[in-house]
Amino acid sequence: MTRIALVTGAMGGIGTAICRRLAAAGMRIAANCLPGEPRRDEWLAAMRSEGMDVIAAEADVSSFAECREMVARVSRDMGPVDVLINCAGITRDATLHKMDEEQWHSVIESNLTSLYNVTKQVIDGMAERGWGRVISLSSVNGTRGAFGQTNYAAAKAGVAGFSKALAQEMVKKGVTVNSVSPGFVETPMVRAIRPDVLKSLIDSIPIGRLARPEEIAALIGFLASDDAAYITGANIPINGGLHMYG
């Protein structure tokens, strides 16, 4: 049976690597992006040229109504969602002293409320079919905190808490729910950081380098597989030793 995977934030650096990994495992991919995403057609063409069975799933994940409509379209065009990867997220960094309401709410809504908005649309179907995977991207900064990121750290800590609670609700229904907490990943956004700042950042990582998006995707690919059926309610760090915890 070919499984359907919905990946939010699919066209970013990590999201693209996740789509490739799941497609290599034989899944059909619904790639979420914002409505009117300028990279959409070029990205789809590139992925299809690699043999990926993929469609665009446009929606602002901070909107419950748009997520409901998105999942309805995916179900109609591909089939019911078996694997959900909550990867969409933004940053709006500022110290709390300077942070305005928009900076707070936009990060909470995009990075945390989005989990409710999307997962709510697919979780009952997974439970009814007796199989499903929900994997959400948290962050090392959701565990250790970070200067200027009260909004982001709060949202990413919430991702882990959401996943642990939902895992308890789904544990008897064949649906596993986990989160993954990456450290700093080599994406175009990170590589655009000022060179001296980037060097200082890399120097702080015990393993001595940034993570490759493919390494994050490999972990997520495993969690999405049948082999990971005994893992649920976990928040798995993948940060090169930047923050070690159990």
Short summary:
With 246 residues, the chain is an alpha/beta fold. It has a single domain (4-184, 212-238), classed as Rossmann fold (3-Layer(aba) Sandwich), CATH 3.40.50.720. The protein has helices at residues 13-24, 40-49, 64-77, 101-129, 140-144, 150-170, 188-191, 195-203, 213-223; strands at residues 4-7, 28-33, 54-58, 83-86, 132-137, 175-182, 235-238.
Describe what you observe in this structure.
This protein is α/β, with parallel strands linked by helices and 246 residues long. It has a single domain (4-184, 212-238), classed as NAD(P)-binding Rossmann-like Domain (Rossmann fold). It is built from nine helices and seven strands, in the order βαβαβαβαβααβαααβ. A seven-stranded parallel sheet has the order 3-2-1-4-5-6-7, with helices on both faces. Helix 1 links the parallel strand 1 (4-7) and strand 2 (28-33). The longest helix has 29 residues, at 101-129. The mean pLDDT is 96.
